[in-house]
Design a protein that fits this description.
The complex is a heterodimer of chains A (392) and B (117). Chain A is mainly β and 392 residues long. Chain A is 9% helix and 62% strand. Chain A has two helices and 18 strands. In chain A, the strands form two sheets. Chain A has a 16-stranded antiparallel barrel. A two-stranded antiparallel sheet of chain A has the order 10-11. The longest helix of chain A has 28 residues. The termini of chain A are far apart. Chain B is mainly alpha-helical and 117 residues long. Chain B has a domain of 54 residues. Chain B has three helices and no strands. The longest helix of chain B is centred in the middle third of the chain and has 28 residues. The chains are: A mainly beta (392), B mainly alpha (117). Chains A and B meet through helix 1, strand 1, strand 2, strand 4 and strand 5 of A and helix 1, helix 2 and helix 3 of B.
Chain lengths: 392, 117
């Protein structure tokens, strides 16, 4: 007979040992970065003030966001971030199994970067809170220039701790999250950049939504939700994602760069059985000295988690009916316009720009049914951003 | 994030078992024990290590091929050659995708915590 408790304890111990080993390895690399004469640079001193708006699938999310970054010496840069989501939700999940709700999420972040030779080291903290969810995280990052500045290697580790609650009772569970990042950016020619990024994420804890239900019916009913049970997810999730990105510059006459084309591909897998492919392109072009335009397209496709079903004919150990875990594709088409309205030093500000972006995303679900109609669910969403950037 | 909260995060991560239920009556054991198989997690870790090594080898090989002098890098310094020209805007857009898709990670920005599940 299998001793489940022993198996779980062993699994936890191995997981924790692995996370400790990864953190120690990261710190070893972090501290052993060699000093060389080539210099990396601190991020730009800039402030972004943004208002965002999302409307799609019965959900509206809006709110302000602010990012301030300022160097306090030649080698230290501080940053602060504030972000708000004001949510009004009548999504397909909500209208079929619950009542529309409103919520507010606030997120605070802070970071410090230290430049040492050609290495840039950073620490970040983040805290997010809403009425039934709390998330705190910290991260360590180091980037290092090699080969005369032609190659930049990035290493990152972050750890998050979430508390999942319900608004209607004292339910409270937690999630631990560990992220490992490795990235390399390479100058290939005088007009071509290549980047490769890998990220592994390990999670333990209560990973499902405490409100959501699955359908359990021997014969799928049409027009009604039918019999339901609470969702049950596995208590762990490991995922790996690798992305390859390239940017090519194009010149025109005396201008070394008039436009650029960015292409990106990402492959994702996890131990829940989800596999996904993401393909994205962006074309950017200057129009005169003050206007910069961007047109972009993104394609996303994923397979369903192994324990996902639109309707379970019998009760299973793990059950999910979250459309984010189903089989679906999405297409996103968008544009961005930036207008540099201050291009000379005024007081302590070097330049300022006004930016507007609009993306339209269409989601098509293959095995998630709108129970009201009995047909496969799909919806479109508009994502808008208006922001002002100032460099100083 | 208060000092108590930081202590709690560290204690939860490196002290008690991660994922330990606060409510014994709804303990995740033994329902999910089958999913915490060591061979499954070991497989994921091996894939992770292999991909990392492959990526590093490819890039170091490419690094050896590149010959671009510092005075030839004017175009590369232009803002439109950046993978993430506006960090706050890109962070927001990545967040929009993160909460509506099963995939996550390897983006150009590092996101904060969110009620994503």
């Amino acid at each position: 007979m299998i001793d489940f408790e022993r198996v779980e304890n062993l699994s936890h111990a191995r997981c924790q040992a692995r996370n400790r080993a990864a953190l120690l390895l990261f710190l070893a690399v972090f501290l052993a970065c060699p000093c060389t004469v080539l210099a990396a640079v601190l991020p730009d001193d800039r402030t972004d003030t943004l208002y965002h708006y999302y409307d799609g699938g019965g959900v509206t999310v809006r709110g302000p966001a602010l990012l301030v970054r300022k160097s306090v010496a030649d080698t230290v840069s501080l940053s602060g971030r504030y972000y708000v989501d004001t949510i009004s939700s009548a999504s397909i999940d909500v209208v079929t199994t619950a009542s529309p709700y409103k919520d507010k999420r606030e997120e605070f972040g802070a970071g410090i970067d230290y430049l040492h030779g050609n290495s840039l080291m950073g620490v970040t903290l983040s805290s997010s809170k809403e009425n039934d969810y709390q998330a705190d995280s910290f991260g360590l990052n180091v980037s290092h220039d090699l080969a005369g500045g032609l190659t930049t290697v990035n290493l990152g580790y972050s750890q998050g701790y979430d508390i999942v609650q319900r608004v209607d009772n004292s339910f409270e569970e937690d999630i631990n999250r560990f992220n490992f990042r490795l990235g390399v950016t390479q100058v290939l020619t005088r007009s071509l950049l290549l980047g490769v990024n890998f990220e592994g994420i390990a999670e333990d804890g209560y990973l499902n939504n405490p409100y959501r239900s699955v359908r359990v019916n021997p014969v799928p009913p049409v027009g009604i939700i039918g019999a339901t049970r609470p969702e049950r997810y596995p208590g762990t999730r490991d995922s790996q994602a690798i992305a390859v990105r390239a940017v090519q510059a194009f010149s025109s006459g005396s201008r070394p760069v008039i436009s650029s084309l960015r292409a990106e591909y990402r492959y994702f897998r996890d131990n829940w059985g989800i596999r996904s492919n993401t393909l994205a392109f962006a074309l950017q072009r200057y129009f005169g000295d003050r206007v910069l335009g961007e047109a972009r397209y993104r394609y996303y496709q994923q397979s369903a988690a192994s324990f996902y079903s639109d309707n379970f004919t019998t009760e299973m150990v793990y059950m999910a009916r979250d459309k984010e875990l189903s089989t679906f594709t999405s297409h996103s088409l968008g544009y961005k316009v930036s207008w540099k309205f201050l291009d000379r030093k005024y007081s302590f500000i070097d330049r300022m720009s006004l930016n507007f972006t609009h993306d339209y995303i269409n989601f098509d679900y293959q095995d998630f049914t709108d129970v009201r109609t009995g047909e496969a669910y799909s919806f479109g969403a508009n994502v808008l951003q208006l922001f002002v950037s100032a460099w100083y | 994030m208060t000092p108590n909260r930081i202590r709690e995060v560290l204690n939860k991560s490196f002290g008690r078992h991660a994922g330990e239920s606060r409510h014994p009556e709804i303990s995740l054991t033994p329902l999910d024990s089958g999913f915490r198989r060591n061979d499954e997690r070991a497989k994921g870790f091996l894939v992770q290590s292999f991909l990392s090594a492959l990526m590093l080898c490819t890039l170091l090989w490419l690094a050896g091929c590149a010959q671009v002098k510092p005075y030839e890098r004017e175009a590369l310094a232009d803002p439109i050659m950046s993978f993430s020209r506006d960090p706050l805007s890109d962070q927001y857009l990545n967040h929009v995708y993160d909460v509506r898709e099963g995939a996550r990670g390897a983006t150009t920005t590092q996101g904060g915590g969110c009620g994503c599940n």
